[in-house]
Amino acid sequence: MPDIIQLLPDNIANQIAAGEVIQRPASAVKELLENAVDAGADEIKLIVNDAGKALVQVIDNGKGMSETDARMAFERHATSKIKNIDDLFRIKTMGFRGEALASIAAVAQVELRTKRAEDETGIYLEIENSFVKMQEPVAATTGTSISMKNLFFNVPARRNFLKSNAAELRHIVDEFIRVSMAFPEIFFSFTSNGQEVFHLEKGSLKQRIVQILGNSYNAKLVSVQEQTDYLNISGFVGKPETAKKTRGDQYLFVNNRFIKSAYLNHAVMNAFNEMIAKDSYPMYALFIDLDPAQLDINVHPTKQEIKFEDEKIVYAFVQSAVKHALAQFSVSPTLDFELDASIQHLDAVSKPLSEERRSSTTSSPLFQTFTQKNQAHFIEKKSDLRHWKDFYESPGEKSTGDIAIQKDSSIGSNAVLHKDTDTDQPLLQLHQAYILVQDEKGFLVIQQQNAHERILYERYMQAVAGKPMATQQSLFPVTIDLAAADAVLLNELIPDLQQLGYQLEPFGNNTFVIQGTPADVESGNEKAALEKMIEQYKHFSNDIKFSKREKLIRSLAMQHAVKEGKVLSQKEMQTLVTSLFVCEVPNVTANGKPTYMSFKKDELDKMFGR
Ligand code: ADP
Ligand code: MG
């Protein structure tokens, strides 16, 4: 019997390998555009005929290739981008595997024209089925033009596998957008069957996004910009009102490479939280930059997935950066005309997203960004607090005082609604949901439920930090039966719940005995209160950014807050309002919803032409 194993000829091996890199015309578009970017071009033109089935051509004004390099470029594993395995951890270019040109040359007819700046003449090459058919010197401008003709002419099975022109063109457009969006400093054009479809002048990222996605996004983009030692994030998200019913305009880039990540997408969606309808999708174009060593580069580059060394940090970071951006945008109407001069000139307010801030924060550690995320609110709060106090302070009289109210935080949460305040300013409740308050410069509209949530949140925070809340002993201890998973969860929460005024003990078999609850839980409601709290808690449970305690407190605050629809007495409203403005962060709930809006008389006057 003869031996039967043979080495495959190069062209066959290349054809097989090409299957992984070049699946359709759009794959070639991606590879050729990325090569042009890597070559340092600042002008890149894409030309396709018949949805790329007949022709994909990319012309760039990059650094070009020498004669030898031009030949070498089409060999498998030929790359100028890495030399050894360590380089993989520093990779900054789009490509590095040296597979793209070899693959394209194995499954199409290729024409290359290239010239370096330092060479008199350029070089012209024709390659088909991995074989060089022609090579000659040619007059050329600096840069490279590669044409890929008749894709899969030699692999009919795969050619038949291609979809309709409309579908293939759609894939090409997607790839074109993904590359051109990441490099707004490069001019791109895209011509299909002789018609120029895109003409993207160099400009800012914002201009590029509007050029690509359409004018409807003009003035509807919120800048996202956070810098830390570990990673940077920049880009834009669409204002909530631009959210669409289809998941279309969502772009995530890591080190300028487009990626798909359901996990990080979730982080962005989470940041929008309740600002958009459940089944709608916000626009975003976000760029994460981090040390390539923090990425697992062994994931194949044509796959759009990516592995981070520490995915959770990236998640938390993305979510927080987007939240921060949205919060800044939502308070900006007040910031624009309301703050007094001494505050207005602070960089954090006047130029929250400037280049200066960008560079000055580059050295800050990751979590600093998190703690700073309410920076703008803090400043706004101070000014509003000042007005608020002025409003309470009748001439010659001292303020009713934040301190007094703060001290009361150890009595049950609902106590806030019964505490006396000694203002005679009448407050107005509208639609059993809003409280209208006149202040020095205009008026505030307070959302009662959101406001109370904020108050309770801060009160509970103090409670778990060491100022336990009072417990009201249940007359008849109540037992509560839970599903096994919920029982595990509740068990873990018992110590914190105790600080918050709940007294309960495990009783075996997923049963607990409730012996006491915070003062504001009506007797008979103990069980329902706990069950609701667990439900709410589970709602937060995929929010990995929060600790158990944070989730618990948010759940309780949401659940115990007075709801919309509750009629409030004057006293209750006054206590609510006063308690709100002694909060650390009075203007948003922990989940980022506004607690009040302020309207300036000046502005009203303007509107009415006074
Ligand atoms: P990779 O990009 O992974 O290195 P490719 O097969 O895409 O592999 O390209 C091989 C090499 O050819 C590149 O490393 C680069 O040196 C050279 N090359 C490819 N396209 C261009 C271009 N447009 N301009 C200059 N050099 C290029
Ligand atoms: Mg490449």
Q: How are the SSEs ordered, and which strands pair?
A:
Layout: H1 10-21, H2 25-38, E1 43-49, E2 55-60, H3 67-72, H4 100-107, E3 109-115, E4 122-128, E5 131-138, E6 143-149, H5 156-161, H6 165-182, E7 187-192, E8 195-200, H7 205-213, E9 221-227, E10 231-238, E11 250-254, E12 257-259, H8 262-272, E13 284-290, E14 295-296, E15 307-308, H9 311-337, H10 341-344, H11 347-350, H12 355-360, H13 366-371, H14 375-392, H15 402-407, E16 428-430, E17 434-439, E18 442-447, H16 448-464, E19 471-481, H17 484-499, E20 503-506, E21 511-518, H18 526-539, H19 548-560, H20 570-580, E22 596-600, H21 601-607
Parallel strand pairs: 1-7, 11-13
Antiparallel strand pairs: 1-2, 2-6, 3-4, 3-6, 4-5, 7-8, 9-10, 10-13, 11-12, 14-15, 16-17, 17-18, 18-22, 19-21, 20-21
Helix pairs in contact: 1-4, 2-6, 6-7, 8-9, 16-19, 16-20, 18-19
Bound molecules: adenosine-5'-diphosphate (ADP) and magnesium ion.
Adenosine-5'-diphosphate binds at residues 31, 35-36, 39, 60, 62-65, 73, 78-81, 95-102, 144.
Sheet with the most strands?
Answer: 8 strands, mixed
Cα separation of the termini: 105 Å
Overall number of strands: 22
Q: Considering DSSP H and I runs of 4 or more, what fraction of the residues is helical? A: 25-40%
What is the mean predicted local confidence, pLDDT? 81
Strand arrangement across the biggest beta sheet: 5-4-3-6-2-1-7-8
Number of helices: 21
CATH architecture of the largest domain: 2-Layer Sandwich
Low-confidence segments, given as residue ranges, are 331-423
Shape assignment: elongated
What class do helices, strands and sheet pairing give?
A: alpha+beta
The proportion of residues in beta strands is 15-25%
Write the CATH fold name of the largest domain.
Answer: Heat Shock Protein 90
